Amino acid sequence: MMKIDQLISDIGYAKHMIETPDMGGGNTGRAIRALRFALKAAVAIQNEAQSVCHWKPEMMSDEDEAWRSDCGEVWSFFEGDPADNDVKFCQGCGRRVEIQPVKQSVDK
């Protein structure tokens, strides 16, 4: 969340520098620098959003199944799995969720 706060702050500062009359103090240069910082923050936010948090099934008891995430959280549902509950993003880290397949045991 801090990256978003920084992005908003940088854009606000650039807006202020653009709207403030430049009395030879270099407001245009300050605005350009602030916009560069804002662009870097936006790229970082986009890259983070594009990354994936893998969720793996884990049996908690004979009937209860939970899902362990890459970010260290454990999630469970009253009914169904993450796909049944329309989970798209991890509630722990905010990254896109990718479900790891359940490994089937082979009986001989």
How would you describe this structure to a colleague?
The protein is about 40% helix and about 20% strand. With about 110 residues, the chain is of the alpha+beta class. It folds into 2 domains: about 50 residues; about 50 residues, no CATH class. A 4-stranded mixed sheet has the order 3-2-1-4. Strand 1 and strand 2 form a beta hairpin. The protein starts with a helix and ends in a 9-residue tail after the last strand.
Q: Could you say which overall geometry the principal axes of the C-alpha atoms support?
A: rod-shaped
- Major sheet description: 4 strands, mixed
> Which residues form runs of ≥5 with pLDDT under 50?
none
Number of domains: 2
Helical element count?
A: 2
What is the helical fraction, as a range of percent? 25-40%
What number is the mean pLDDT? 81
Please state how the strands of the largest beta sheet are arranged side by side.
Answer: 3-2-1-4
Secondary-structure element order, N to C: HHEEEE
Structural class: alpha+beta
Taking all Cα atoms into account, the compactness measure Rg is: 22 Å
